[in-house]
Amino acid sequence: MNTNENTNQTLFMEKHFKFTTSVIALPLFFVVFLWFVFWLEIRFGFDFIENGIYPRTFSGLQGVLFSPFIHADVEHLYNNSIPLLILLAALQFFYAEQAMKVIGYGIVVSGCITWIIGRDNYHIGASSLIYVLFSFVFFKGLQTKYNRLVALSLAVIVVYGGLVWYVFPSPEITGNKAISWEGHLGGLLTGFFLSLVYKTPEFKKVIKYDWEHPDFDASEDKFMQRFDDNGNFVNIPKSEEFEEQLGFLSYYTVNVPVNYEVVLNEKNESKPEF
């Protein structure tokens, strides 16, 4: 691969994986806004829970937009803040062009799914958005087949893989402080759907060696010709070796006559007089 191709690949990666202030500003602003909404509830005695999603009611549709910003208590808000900071930063860094669309449509679509399949209760919290981000980052990285994004997908599944268990109803998540598994399931499905809808650039591996090219023919390579089918080193036939030597000599010989003049190695110094 030539130098220009390597340079183009490097510039391509720098363009799409570039650290900017938005990588920090976006998740920080979002989480701070959640805490500000919760502070308003505490400070002025508001009760925003009724602005959450109440399934299959017209008034409950308002929660599609408002529910991610409403939390029941400090523990609920804190548990959602850390994953949001991490996943939003990863989304903005690796998928900057798709980040705002994934967040916006993720909130709306996952909220609508919750409104359709949810139990008759108020559904609040940013956990559905967390599942959107988790699902999108994981599935999109596998779809691109690019080593950096696949590594990100594996890191996400290692750290937050346990989230998958909370998309199913179970006795452990029912009761007075029941978890909205419907919102989690809606977020997971929405993230997967968005990973199929939004296309990313084709990330290609930088080719450094000739044998990495898809059209590489080992039979034409002089080095590979010295190995048999079993990988054993073999000597090439004498005729081919002689042709190689002729090619080597022809490369370093010319047909122009060269005249050499022998010059004695004498220093240009006057001899001392006696």
What order do the helices and strands come in, and which of them pair?
Blueprint: H1 3-16, H2 22-44, H3 63-66, H4 74-94, H5 99-117, H6 127-144, H7 147-160, H8 181-197, H9 238-252
Tag the structure with descriptive keywords:
0% strand, mainly alpha, 2 domains, Rhomboid-like fold, 274 residues
Summarize the structure.
This protein has 274 residues and is mainly alpha-helical. The protein contains nine helices and no strands.
Shape: elongated
End-to-end CA span: 71 Å
Radius of gyration: 33 Å
Second-tier CATH architecture of the largest domain: Up-down Bundle
Tally of discrete structural domains: 2
In this structure, how is the largest beta sheet organized?
none
**CATH C-level name of the largest domain:** Mainly Alpha
- Might you state the CATH topology name of the largest domain? Rhomboid-like fold
Task: List the total number of helices.
Answer: 9
Work out the number of β strands. 0
Describe the structure.
By secondary structure, the protein is an all-alpha fold. The chain has 2 domains: 195 residues, Rhomboid-like fold (Up-down Bundle), CATH 1.20.1540; 36 residues, no CATH class. It is built from 9 helices and no strands. The radius of gyration is 33 Å and the shape is elongated. The relative contact order is 0.11.
